[in-house]
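Notebook, p. 212. Picked up where the previous page left off. The plan for this session was modest: take the two constructs that came back from the sequencing core last week, fold each one, and keep the raw output in the notebook itself so nobody has to go hunting through shared drives later. Recording the first one now, exactly as returned: residue sequence, then the structure token string.
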Amino acid sequence: MDLDNVLDLARTTLWTAIILVAPPLLAGLLVGLLVSLFQTVVAIQEQTLALVPKMLAVALTILLLLPWTLNRLVEFAESLFLNLDSWGPGA
């Protein structure tokens, strides 16, 4: 396995990871921002108030995008297995 293959595999792995975690993180960010804005408007100083809505938003996003996420992971695993022979010691 030469350096180009290693770099390509690392880039593909990191890009796949970023694509898979971005929607739940963005949902949590958006809900946290909205709850913080609401807290500022009504002058509520409770720090733990934003935790439950963010957790629910992240969990709901994960559940809704689960088929898409699994499809992306299966495609990534298939590409790994299809290219496995080109990464061997004899390649």
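Okay, moving on. Second construct, recorded in the same format:
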Amino acid sequence: MSELQPLLEFKKISKSFPGVKALNEVDMNFSKGEVHALVGENGAGKSTLMKILSGVYQPTSGQIYYNGEEVHIKNPHEAQLMGISIIFQEFSLINHLDVVSNVFLNREPVGFGGFKDKNLARQKTLEIFNRMGVEIDIDKLISELSVVEQQLVEIAKALSVTSKVLIMDEPSAPLTDKELTKLFDIIRSLREEGVTVIYISHMLEEIFEIADRVTVLKDGEVTHTDEVANMTKDLLVQKMVGREIGDIYPDLGTPLDESILNVEKLSCGRKIQDISFSLRKGEILGLAGMVGSGRSEVVKALMGLLKKDRGLIEVGGREIANSSVREAIANGFYYIPSDRKKEGIIAPMSIKENTTIANLDAYLKKGLINRRNENKAAVEENNKLRTKTSSMNELIRNLSGGNQQKVLLARALLTNPKIFCIVEPTRGIDVGAKHEIYKILRDLCEAGNSVIMVSSELPEVIGMADRILVMKQGKVAGIIDQAEKKATEEQVLSLAVGHEYCLHKKEESK
């Protein structure tokens, strides 16, 4: 495929921002009718390059060739006219408009007399969703849709344009396995129609499932391009971060025998029932289970985010209620949610403000915030975690996912917690940043803190947790101590889904 005449070619593309060179002489080409994956750590330059291609940014230097001719893409409208569409990681939908209006925003079909034809727009929208194999209420407002449905509308919006090049930036993030299968079916049909798909993802399994070629960006430069068939996951990780995949997880810890937390018969309606466990000082306790098993609800109950029906929570031998988040923080707990953008960061605020907001009382003097002390605290904590930023005054929304997660950890540290409750700690974070987050969590435990980590990624749970508490249908299905024997994915799944899984595996082995 790489031997075909390129449909699109970058030659020595560079892009500089004040104090930062985001791209350095990038050479890359894309063939007609291929799925070309673009991978790299956060901050490697992937999104910057795609924003240049889609007309959002202008290159500092270099050339873009399209169908063999040099082009200058001045804005997104010009890119669309050329047949270049992009589905951004951040949705660009208008919440108070319905699905049809969003799909054909500023491009409404025109009927008799030159007037906008709403019925024709509805018909075309239905045709697109039928092509995608998706059922959705096209009369609903975007604000009424789930995150998954909003992602599908973004895809439909891109497909409503006659695209020759379709850029997908982390399209699978909110999708279930079933919906991801549909997305891949759509991509394959686009490839057969001759559309070039540029696929950006941190999920390496997806790259091997759907891509024909893969290009690795590191520090704004292309470090490797090859057919996916010639790559392995280990090799791809090496090219991205310069280390073996086996080095991603730090060594397991050696927790003390001392229990810092004891939970007995904790129940919240049908969500969790009679949950009992302990947490040792210096331990990472991993919570695993299928979607809906109650794993996230356990930490929400500990933090006062779910009302408890009954149960005992003891910290250091002292019974506590934790009936609110404020009370839980006062008792030495801190919660970092799974949805970093919606429930974690405050996007319009600076890194400093996001870091100190949970502990502002510490910087108050006569009702006013001592900005010098606030800034000093933010700098110290973010420096400890190696947050990459040029200034504490930079808006947090400009940071990569990994650095945003570090800011949330810095915020937590300023409340002086003893028990960190963190859900999906590396969701949407690249491999290199994952390693840094894992190291931070392990360092916290070595300093005498404890971590309850909820994750849907089994390799992550097995790689990080000293013990694994497996949930099933709101109850504890079992606890695996990795000090005794290293857990396997099959062992965790057997507990998570029960006897039926074991029977199925036995039938497969016959």
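Notes on construct two before I forget. The longest strand covers residues 6-17.
Flagging for discussion at group meeting.
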